[in-house]
Amino acid sequence: MMPWLLPLLLVLLGGPRAVQPAPPTCYSRMLSLSREITGDFQSLQASEPSEPCVRYLPRLYLDIHNYCVLAKLRDFVASPQCWKVARVDALKDKVRKLYTIMNSFCRRDLVFLSDDCNALEYPIPVTTVLPDRQG
Fold this sequence. Notes:
Layout: H1 5-14, H2 26-47, H3 69-78, H4 86-105, H5 118-121
Helix pairs in contact: 2-4, 3-4
């Protein structure tokens, strides 16, 4: 064995590593984009009371594990309401992007756990129950 090989290996393996984050997977990209869209929609509803058309947009709670989400995305993009409101146009662009990702690029990665369309209309709120402290 060459005498310089061991110190070289120690320097290469023991030195500070440049950590490269893993690239997003199809699933992680769909999940983060769906959460971003849901948050943007809720923000839009809260901040645009002057635009009456926002009230008539289809609800946009997204669960990428529900088969009905694809129809929900199509309906939202096709809705004629608010076609001149910039924030709604930007949101529709994100929705269109998610639909394309789900229906084309990541189609094989999708696993639908439900086909309950009502769950997308009336989502069950997530509540946190704190443990009862008994002393």
